[in-house]
Fold each of these.
Amino acid sequence: MPVAFLNGPYIAYEYEAVTVATVSIGLDAAKLQKARTTNDSIGGTSYTATTKAIECYMTLETAQIRWTCDGTTPTTTVGHLMEVGESITLHGHQNLSKFRSIRTGGTSGSLRVSYFSQ
């Protein structure tokens, strides 16, 4: 099984586990665009800003799935096939917002997702 190597300018800010079952499912909208409080290092002022995911890294732990990221609804025969142990990295907020997945067999998939922003 390959080892993940994440090296880039983005910062991980959120994580979720997604159960991929018989109905196609997308990523959590609240995690794709999350409000967070930050302290201004110069003036010491706190402010709330919205973090928008621009990349996510996903690994599949159980049961084969199919996925799309262009608005197409995946089915058991439509979409990119993902096998247990494989990973994908998606770039672009719009691609992440349109991501959908569905299981291909009788067992639900367990997809682990880490979200990244600038």
Amino acid sequence: MKISVALCTYNGEKHIEEQLTSILEQTQLPDEIVICDDSSTDDTVSVIRSTLARYAGKLILITNHQNIGYKKNFVQAMSLCSGDIIFLSDQDDVWEKNKIAIMNRVFQDNPRAILVFHDVILVDEQLKLLCNSFWKILEFEPEAFLRQNYDVLLEKNVVQGSACAFRKNLFHKAIPFPIVAIHDEWLALVAVGEGEIIPIAQQLMQYRQGNNVLGARPTAFVAKIKKWTINIKKVLNIYLQELVRREAVYNTYSKKKYANKGLAKRFDFIGCSKFLENRVQCINNGDLSIIKLFPTYVGMHISITQAIKVFFKDLLVMFFYDKKSL
């Protein structure tokens, strides 16, 4: 199968050479690299050209005349790929040398697999270890996906874009990408209805965090508690805004003709959309009838423990969030 890499850049001269070098040193090289630069004002494009001068495969380098944002830029890059399998790439990560080979083998061994993704190591700007597993932070259990249980996607997206690869036909099924959704989140939802999503429990990439450690340090729990006590309203508002956004994403998806057809029936998109809508309504109105929704919380989540956790978080938001800031 022909392999394409879709990479987006913006003012990434600091780390882009390191990322491209890690792609060029793969045990299985991609057949095509598509790069869309989103109107960088630094030397990103020059570094790309010099670094890829030794690349023998097909190279497509697009420089946008004006900044269109990372969502549209990734859709643009994916649309230009001609490979059977498309790998997404950020500009500042470092791939393990066997990433492409391992993921490609999973596609070959699993004809029904339409999207594959892996765990990553979180590192800082200097590639110093922050956390040896992003999945631990996300509380993601890959065994559930292997059982084709995708309940976790109700609350959050665990399919990180730069850690995933997918068959080209998934992109065609996913377009048009709605403005409200993030590209990797949307690909994951569409993939549920079109094939199997397979997680690889290996850290095949160093995921550079910069100043954002995503709670990856050993003191993450203490830091998280401190954050809640110091600025609890801000945290709760962010949580509610994300909940409202995901409601809009699911509402958009549930109206698609493929929302509850075939494979999608194993994940109740329409039910999820209604559930999210009811939660947002209750929270906004301070409506204690949210308690009556608890059986739905249990039915919609992978475990009763997870359901209880989300339910009480919603109650906390309902009582303490700052409505004026929304």
